[in-house]
Amino acid sequence: RLHGMIFAVITKTPCVVLPNNNHKILQTYNDWLSGIKHIWLLQQYNLSNILNVVKELLELDQIEVEKPDFTKKLFQLESFIKNAN
Predict the structure, then answer these.
(1) Minimal CA–CA distance to 37: which of 12, 61, 18?
(2) Using one digit for the tens of pLDDT, what is the confidence trace for 48-75?
(3) Contact present, 25 and 5 (Cβ < 8 Å)
(4) Nearest CA-CA partner of 14 in 34, 37, 32
């Protein structure tokens, strides 16, 4: 699921993501991908929620997909790594 979510960002494909039991998906979404409009994370989900989101996706005429700019976060990560000594 994590790699599928990342691949969806790269390929600009709308994606509905369900969390897993180790928080990797939730943290990746919150830290890096929460501002991307074509990626939806369903933290509380059941069949009805999933069907509603898929229905909304299918009803969209055209989805504007934006390429995320990770520059600021990458500089923060670089600074953190350099100062981790």
Answers:
(1) 12
(2) 888 888 887 777 656 666 667 778 888 8
(3) yes
(4) 37
